[in-house]
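Problem statement: downstream parser choked on a complex file, so we are re-checking the raw output for the NAP run. The parser issue turned out to be on our end (a line-ending mismatch), but while we're here, posting the original submission so the record is complete.
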Amino acid sequence: MAARILSGKSVAESLHTRIQQVLARRAPDHKPPTLTALLPNDPSAQAYARAIRKQFSTLHLGYQAIRLEDTLDESEFQIILKRLAEDESVTGILALQPLPKGVSRGSLARLMPPTKDVDGVSFEQQGRLAIGSPWIAPSTPLGGLILLQHYGIEVAGRHAVVIGRSPVVGRPLALLLLARDATVTICHSRTPDLARLTRQADLLFVAAGHPHLVKPDMVAPGAVVVDFGVSVRDGRLIGDVDPAVAEVASALTPVPGGTGPVTTAVLALNLLRLAGLLEEHDFLPAAP
Ligand code: NAP
């Protein structure tokens, strides 16, 4: 069997069309929503920031970046976030990973103002997701589900296996899948006999950051495989799923060009929600 390749580019294009329609409807005196990216000194974060800036410029959305020094500590981080929280020209704030060593993911969750939290990292947005009432959900896992919906792949009632439990991808993905009525198994680095569980998946989601972790013999014939992994090897981007999995799976997201482009489009969608321009979409209910 040769898997159907689930390109993220066409998904991102359809989200862009939707975003442009929403922006076209706003009042003429309504300034474009603006994203502020907090940018660490890291090449992959900088590459991601360039992709966001390019896409936001095409969509006529505002974008600015603030560089975070490697030596930044929590109190300096708090000052930056407080200033951005009070700045009315800032609609959304995105803290790109990896955070400087002096700032933990826990302090990011505590300090991020929930009403400007474009990627759902604050305690409030994470808590809403945990109780099944999300308002802003993290863009990468939400993008994964939007991608499946775009291709007409059903989630409800199916067994979803998620590799990875980080607060950025795996954990919120598992919660979003639960909210969409999947039966969910979460795996991580301490899971014994990973292949025994992955072979039970109707839908396999991989977000481990471990290049080509998933091999063809770990996938049930006909399963759908969504690869979030991005690693650089010999100057090329590669995912967490060995491309030979395409011989077994019924559908597979490529790397690059799969979940990545959808993530940046969903960031723009989340920004519109923070700006009050997008009340509902298929995955998230109206604002509380
Ligand atoms: P992370 O914080 O390092 O978390 C990785 C998770 O995978 C952890 O829960 C870890 O388990 C688990 N894991 C690692 N190796 C494993 C193994 N051999 N077997 C089973 N589980 C394993 O990474 P992240 O921020 O979630 O990112 C994951 C990947 O997604 C990275 O490649 C990242 O670059 C990529 N990413 C992609 C997008 C996109 O738009 N496509 C966006 C964000 C991130 P423990 O919890 O036990 O350590």
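For whoever reads this later: The chain is about 35% helix and 15% strand.
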